Amino acid sequence: MSGTEQKVALVTGAARGIGLATAQLMAEDGWRIALLDRDEPALKEAAANFKGEAISLLHDVSDPQAAPQAIRETLNAFGRIDALVNNAGVADFGPIEETDFTRWRTVMETNLDGVFLMSQAAIPALKETKGAIVNIASISGLRASTLRVAYGTSKAAVIQLTRQQAAELGEYGIRANAVCPGPVRTKLAMAVHTQDIIDAYHDAIPLNRYGSEREIGEVVAFLCGPKASYVTGQIIAADGGFESTGVGLP
Ligand code: NAD
């Protein structure tokens, strides 16, 4: 692939963690990348160290004005969008009685509204390329736990939104899938994972370890690319086997 034929992916939450690893991996596979994040210093640092062709988009996915603007900026720079990776997310650890409405809304605005808004704005461009949407959900959207009322509910909603997208957009050749990562040692996770939680995860995960950012990115890249051309509406856990075991979330 070269020039205008080279595929383009817009990755949200791309300044660090799973989003940055995914973007870097896809760039190594020949994709041109739009790195979107709301954290300006982190985005600048990510762009400065990025290996490959990329633009930076400083936006907050929970802002309804941001999505159409981000899509326009990507099309202006690259002329096409072949994949949208809705990865931006925030974590919140708290049971229902301790989660006030502000915390609940903060989680929903990024984790759910952001996916809705970005996907909706990207649809016309994705119709042109018969492109793909990959939503980053979580094992917390597959299983309930006593600590994740807002986060888990937001991710369960993203899983259903993915199925809706697959059902509605298949007629345009657009595929939509979700990846549910298990625990990965990113800033998001390590802000809430105590040593007890880390130990419990190691015990509960058949592979006995956390995943890496790139291990998640590989699954996302597969789902974005032509090798997954007949895969849509799927919810794929990349979690070391956690979801399949029936052992409860710590
Ligand atoms: P991270 O905190 O390292 O990175 C998240 C990035 O998203 C940051 O750069 C942050 O600035 C950006 N971001 C957050 N809210 C945003 C917004 N409203 N608009 C634009 N950018 C925003 O976290 P991570 O662990 O890499 O998480 C990436 C995704 O993976 C999230 O959706 C998260 O829920 C999911 N996930 C992570 C884990 C884990 O253990 N790390 C497990 C399951 C799912």
TrEMBL record:
Please give one Gene Ontology molecular function term for this protein.
oxidoreductase activity
At the top level, the lineage of the source is Bacteria
- InterPro entries registered for this protein in UniProt: KR_dom (IPR057326), NAD(P)-bd_dom_sf (IPR036291), Sc_DH/Rdtase_CS (IPR020904), SDR_fam (IPR002347)
Q: What is its EC number?
A: 1.1.1.-
Q: Which CDD domains match?
A: SDR_c
Identify the Pfam families for this entry.
Answer: adh_short_C2
Q: Into which family does the record put it?
A: Belongs to the short-chain dehydrogenases/reductases (SDR) family.
Write down the PANTHER family for this protein, in alphabetical order.
OXIDOREDUCTASE (PTHR42760:SF123), SHORT-CHAIN DEHYDROGENASES/REDUCTASES FAMILY MEMBER (PTHR42760)
Q: What is this protein called?
A: SDR family NAD(P)-dependent oxidoreductase
